[in-house]
Amino acid sequence: MKIREQLEERETQILSKYATLSMNSKGRVRDEKPCDIRPYFQRDRDRILYSKSFRRLKDKTQVFLSPDGDHYRTRMTHTLEVSQNARTIAKALRLNEDLVEAIALGHDLGHTPFGHAGERALNAVCPYGFKHNEQSLRIVEKLENYGQGLNLTWEVRDGILNHEMELKPGTLEGKVVRLSDKIAYMHHDMDDAIRGGILVESDVPEKLAMVIGHSNREWIDTFIHNIILNSMDKDDITMSEEVYEAFHKLRKFMFERVYTNPIAKGEESKVEDMIKILYHYYVEHFEKLPEYLKKMADEGEPRERLICDYVSSMTDRYAVAAFQEVYIPRSWAVM
After folding, report:
1. pTM score > 0.90 for this model?
2. For residues 202 and 216, what is the distance between their CA atoms, to the nearest angstrom?
3. What tens digit of pLDDT does each residue of 56-80 get?
């Protein structure tokens, strides 16, 4: 018996009856020979981890644009914290950790440079619109490996696409990641906001703190414990009514005090203008796109969609460098 088959058999013995078993995967778009060591979802996790799109997350904004300090989160550290939260929950509920980790590592691959500011800009100018969760799916299905994609399983692709709160993943593991994503960004964005002097923990309303705790550490502990206790031996991932209501109130508080705060977001209009200008530049100079994207255009992909793919794939640093290269005379740039 191959090692993979032994691991798949072990899943049937130790995982919950509600878990997604590797051997029961709906499979890949393109059939391929299974690995003799790794089950399907572990293999997907590895493909995402080794992808260029994943590596680029280290230089993409989470909340603060170009912050002064080494300890502010990036899109990659956010992704790792989502993975940690999700694996903690999945392990306690005896769900498939490989599937949870693969979804978590891939869920934000489609984020633009400069976070949601870049997303808004591309959504405004691209006739096909732009949503980062849909772009994440497009990356793993079509764009990685120079237009070949990663050929991931249905379960991983479903979890990546449906990690937004208003969407419904098809597996419990996907539902774990969807909640873990929000828990992670509220936790670390609060931490970064405190570091940036935007607020302090005591700013959280007392009625809310009475439910979730009075410190950032207590909040994340409350949410994770509550999910585990209320989802144990159930075919769903849920919180208690009281904590779920507090969860949404904290999100509302974060949007009001951090995500729309002029200190954190004061430069975003400049970023949006820059991304829009880059998009329009490549509309006029499509020949400057990478060869694999031009090949996809020859095969029928809309040029506007491919330009959006290219600009959204840029890191913060690369987007600024591209803008300088295109629009700032060299003699000015060195002054």
Report:
1. yes
2. 10
3. 999 998 766 665 656 678 899 999 9
